[in-house]
Amino acid sequence: MSATEDVGYDPTPDTGGPAQPLIKVQNLKKYFPVRGGPLGRVQAQVQAVDGVSFDVAKGETLGIVGESGCGKSTTAKLLIGLTERDQGDIIFDGLALGEKLSLKDLRRGVQMVFQDSYATLNPRMTIEASVAFGARVQGLDKPEDRARKLMDRVGLDPARFAHRYPHELSGGQRQRVNIARALAMSPRLVVLDEAVSALDKSVEAQVLNLLNDLRAEFGLTYIFISHDLNVVRYISDRILVMYLGEVVEVAPVASIWAEQAHPYTRSLFSAMPSMDPDNRTKEPPLSGDPPNPINPPSGCRFHTRCRFKADVCKTKTPKLAGLSVNAKHMVACHLHDADSGHPKAGQGVPS
Amino acid sequence: MLSYLIRRLILVLPVAFGVSVICFMLVQIAPGDPLTAIMPIDATAEEQAAMRAAYGLDKPLAVQYAIWIGNLAQGDMGKSIATGRPVAAEVFGAVNNSLLLAASAAVIAFPIGVFLGFLAGYFRDTWIDRAVTAASITGVSLPNYWLGIVLVIIFSVNLGWLPSMGAGPGGSQAWVWNWEHMRHLILPAVTLSVVPIGIVARTVRALAGDILTQDFVQALYAKGMTRMDVLWHVARNAAATALSVMGLQLGYLLGGSILIETVFNWPGSGFLLSNAIFQRDLPLLQGTILVLALLFVAMNLIVDVAQAAIDPRIQRT
Amino acid sequence: MALAEPEMMDGREPAPMEKPQGYWAGVGERLLQDKLTMACFGVLMLLILSAVFAPWLGLADPYKGSMIARLKPIGTEGYPLGTDEQGRDMLARLIYGGRLTLFIGLMPVVFAFFIGSFLGVLAGYVGGLTNTIIMRTIDVFFAFPSVLLAIAISGALGAGIFNSLVSLTIVFIPPITRVAEAVTSGVRSLDYIDAARATGANNWTVIRMHVIGNVLSPIFVYATSLTSVCMILAAGLSFLGIGVRPPEPEWGLMLNTLRSAIYINPWLSALPGMMIFVTSLCLNLLSDGLRSAMNVRD
């Protein structure tokens, strides 16, 4: 792609320096009420996100993986305030949401790209109007100019596409529009929720490369949510694994790729088709569906499907803690905690 | 099913309450003082105040409403200003006649509507379909009070076959099962049936058309079922929706009969209502509307429950 | 809906050079090709224009009766459509009658469209308690068949043009609100509303820029389908004597006063009803045409 003109990217200034995480999430919780019965009373709670904590450093890409229904997308929506959290803190560059940071300011700094490229574009708006909308809302100058420059930057000729409607574009083109739209507000963090999952493989690769270029050019930080481990590995620096609304493992890509510390992560990775016939894991894949998040299992939520479960797993909830060999590789499993009371405590996952 | 029934019954209570409030408010929005109709013109201010107190009209609205509801609960809907008879007695006699008319219209309309609609849905995009569609859109566009007049012109004035007015010979008010009374029923019932024929035909056509193109119908043929068996399956699937539309129409027939009753001088609730309006007989107006609305609510409830009994999927919503 | 199609490697696939077509241009084009709908539109325009410009059409005075020229049959010299029970020219009265009939028959739907859309969009977008209050109130009005409700309110308020407008508007607010609420809650759950909210836009901006444009056409089509019923009801109120007062020419009222003439000059007395029927038929067909041109499904 040829050199592009300056698109006038002006994110809010960095305040805490590189050592301060761009976003810090602490003990985030979201329960959805389930109503029923003759009077429509709340009868149960879906524990969609239950005590999730993590940091994302400036310029880093954090990949979030897990089965569908594990709370990935809810986490994403909580991060940008589309779903109201029940509990927990969201701290953006040192400023806590709701205290020193308004929702509108958070949305200036954090933007999102959704999975369904068609559904996320207003069918009655031209591409240009859709891209310019956010910039106008945020009061940035010359929203249309900005929109056209960004369209050009993501590979859509403004002269051809500006006045078209979403249904006149292909899926890949629409996802480029969605990326341009997110960038129109000059955010510092972009949450990509299954942003490439619906695309054809060849188009997916193009969009991933575009995302990598944009990150370098604009100094972006990404949270990349996907169920496709290969894609996550390609784009991420660290990977976070969720199961039934909880974080079970967080680790740098190389570390988790070499050794999955949680039995769930291991099963997840083993389900991935390998290109190398000699390198196939012997791990049996996960059986059955994840348990109902309305009444999640007690103790370790994975114990109903875990091959290594012991009595302690049913009663005691494991804490997320760094491995003894590598403190940056964190896992929530009694097998790794010497004091947990598990018969094989401190030995790690048997191979 | 029981849980659904209870849920549905609980939902009816606030609606019934709202209906009673609206009926109560009807008298309040009426221009002028409700007393003027019963007070002599030369009544003094003291006499008026005494009368006001006697009727409880000096109390706050909420209290007046509570008294009114309390009396209603005992079956006391007040007295008609025009006739002095209890409103309840007047209304129930008239509602009986209206129900008879509405039911007769339904007996004519539903089989014809279902038949035509099914025909059109089955022979979709043929001349049969187009003819039925044209007929049903004409039916729903007809002002039925005008249609009544046209039918009177044809069958009473020109041909002299059927009577044009009343429910029976010699201004009979009460229904008797004999040919003379039946003759009086034919024209109003036919007139009233035209709009529901159109609506039922439209609904059934859409239902039959949709269902016949669904995959499972192909599967039924593939299983070797005969045409009649398949039709029976399709009919059962459409029944719940068709039933709810017809139930609703039965309710509308009760309301819609008001204009028709005026055209044919049919001694039903609509006739009563228009008399009440002209004589500014507000208690009678209020009572008639309350009874009709509650009847409509009850009918909707029955339809909903029947629909849920036929199609269990509905119970979950 | 549309699936991803193969792209050229740099994502700049050649675009077809035709001018991109907006939604409304497409609707207009489809309408123009629908002959039946256009014919109905023509008839309605003719009725409306002749009613509006009645004083300049060289018609007889619609209020001036004649004791000696009562109930002249259709085709009488000087009275092309005969005379009514007071000897007034029927042609003039039918054309002048369109003024009030069409006004009272159409305006309540227009008012109810604005009020009902407002309430429904509010209830659908905001949800929660606001939704419950609005929609449960609406449910109560649904407990009355529309004819009954119109007659009840008009009967209580008394005859008159203004009272008819009020009662009919009240009758049509609940169904429009219900449809508006359903359509809006549908749109509310779509991703592009989330995407718009994610920009930091406030509710009002999201409703104005993203919701209204996508809910208005189904609500509008639904409202047009009510115009025919409203016409019939409005004329029905006058027919009952609780709408327009005599001596104003109005089709429903004329139908009523001519009832006494059915034994003398039957077909004459059916004429005003014919006008109501033709108008309501055209309104129904026009609404159906709009529905398919605007791609609105039930």
Notes on the protein architecture:
The complex is a heterotrimer of chains A (351), B (317) and C (298). With 351 residues, chain A is of the alpha/beta class. Chain A has a domain at 3-9 and 21-240: Rossmann fold. Chain A contains eleven helices and twelve strands. In chain A, the strands form two sheets. Chain A has an eight-stranded mixed sheet with strand order 6-7-8-3-9-10-12-11, sandwiched between helices. In chain A, helix 3 (127-137) crosses helix 4 and helix 3 runs parallel beside helix 6. The relative contact order of chain A is 0.13. Chain B is built from eleven helices and no strands. Chain B is mainly alpha-helical and 317 residues long. Helix content of chain B is 74%, strand content 0%. Chain B has a single domain (87-310), classed as MetI-like fold (Orthogonal Bundle), CATH 1.10.3720. Chain C has 298 residues and is mostly helical. In chain C, helix 2 packs across helix 10 (266-293) and helix 3 runs antiparallel to helix 4 (128-142). Chain C has a domain at 104-298: MetI-like fold. Chain C has helices at residues 23-33, 35-52, 90-126, 128-142, 146-157, 161-188, 191-197, 203-240, 251-257, 266-293. Mean pLDDT of chain C is 83; it is low at 1-19. At the B-C interface, helix 1, helix 5, helix 6, helix 9 and helix 10 of B face helix 4, helix 5, helix 8 and helix 10 of C.
Tally of DSSP β-strands of chain B: 0
Number of domains of chain B: 1
Q: What class, by secondary structure content of chain C?
A: mainly alpha
Strand content of chain C: under 5%
As for the CATH topology of one domain in chain C, it is MetI-like fold
| Low confidence ranges of chain B | none
> What is the H/E string of chain B?
HHHHHHHHHHH
Distance between the termini of chain B: 12 Å
Q: The CATH topology of chain B, please? A: MetI-like fold
Q: What is the gist of this entry?
A:
Chain B is mostly helical and about 325 residues long.
Q: What's the SSE blueprint?
A:
The complex is a heterotrimer of chains A (351), B (317) and C (298).
Chain A: E1 23-36, E2 41-56, E3 61-65, H1 72-79, E4 87-92, E5 95-96, H2 103-109, E6 110-113, H3 127-137, H4 143-153, H5 158-161, H6 171-183, E7 189-193, H7 201-218, E8 221-225, H8 229-235, E9 238-243, E10 246-252, H9 253-258, H10 263-270, H11 311-315, E11 321-322, E12 330-331
Parallel strand pairs in A: 3-8, 3-9, 6-7, 7-8
Antiparallel strand pairs in A: 1-2, 1-4, 4-5, 9-10, 10-12, 11-12
Helix pairs in contact in A: 3-4, 3-6, 4-6
Chain B: H1 2-29, H2 45-54, H3 61-73, H4 87-122, H5 127-141, H6 144-158, H7 179-212, H8 215-222, H9 227-264, H10 269-278, H11 282-310
Chain C: H1 23-33, H2 35-52, H3 90-126, H4 128-142, H5 146-157, H6 161-188, H7 191-197, H8 203-240, H9 251-257, H10 266-293
